[in-house]
Amino acid sequence: MSGPLLVLVGPMGVGKSTVGRLLAERLGVGYRDTDDDIVAAQGREISDIFVADGEPAFRAMEKQAVHAALAEHEGVLALGGGAVLDADTRALLAGHRIVYLSMDVEEAVRRTGLNVARPLLAVNPRKQWRELMEARRHLYEEVATAVVPTDGRTPDEVSRAALDAV
Ligand code: S3P
Fold first, then answer.
1. Which terminus of the chain has fewer Cβ atoms in its 10 Å neighbourhood, N or C?
2. Domain assignment present for 1
3. Contact 112, 103 (CB under 8 A)
4. 117: pLDDT strictly greater than 80
5. What is the span of the domain harbouring residue 16?
6. Maximum CA pair distance of the chain?
7. Residue 84 near residue 13, CB atoms below 8 Å
8. Is the residue at 85 inside a domain?
9. pLDDT over threshold 70, residue 122
10. Atom nearest to 119 CA in ligand 1
11. Three-class SS of the chain
12. How far apart are CA 166 and CA 48, in angstroms?
């Protein structure tokens, strides 16, 4: 199947962009990130889109961006943390090499903290992380062809583990 060599999924803050860039460099291919595609197409930050248009509108933009990137990009592709919420997107991911970068809730809270640029975590990050992961963990696992835990690992170690896993 043509399309990306490797797709990274997982929660925000897990290091998809950093690890994705390292992987692309190691594999000698390009790197693409659907969040960046949305920001470029919209000319505004994701947090601004959430505030002005609401989450459903963002999800529609995300779905379009993910589907376009899966069709066009042949390197390493990182998807926004919520892209797997969409059933059509999950179906489209079947047959691709999908690496789920995972982390536990405490690591997530440590890494993202109180970050207003991440609209889903603006209040009570620990509780919101727990709920987010309860709702999404099974979706990441459903689409993944490999799971790479990131807890206590550097981006370099994670990218090596991802290469070993695929
Ligand atoms: C989101 C994750 C973010 C971004 C948006 C929503 C989510 O992407 O798409 O803030 O629902 O988990 P990253 O995972 O790249 O941070």
1. N
2. no
3. no
4. no
5. 6-159
6. 42
7. no
8. yes
9. no
10. 10
11. CCCCCEEEECCCCCCHHHHHHHHHHHHCCCEEEHHHHHHHHHCCCHHHHHHHHCHHHHHHHHHHHHHHHHHHCCCEEECCCCHHHCHHHHHHHCCCCEEEEECCHHHHHHHHCCCCCCHHHCCCHHHHHHHHHHHHHHHHHHHCCEEEECCCCCHHHHHHHHHHHC
12. 36
> Looking at the predicted complex, does its ipTM rise above 0.95?
yes
Q: Number of folded domains in the chain? A: 1
Cα of 28 vs centre of ligand 1, distance in Å, is: 26
Give 156 Cα–ligand 1 centroid separation in angstroms: 22
The answer to whether 7 touches 75, Cβ cutoff 8 Å, is no
Alpha carbon of 103 to ligand 1 centroid (Å): 15
- Which CATH number goes with the domain that contains 114? 3.40.50.300
pLDDT, one tens digit per residue, over 16-51 is: 999 999 999 999 999 999 999 999 999 999 999 999
On whether residue 164 sits in a domain, the answer given is no
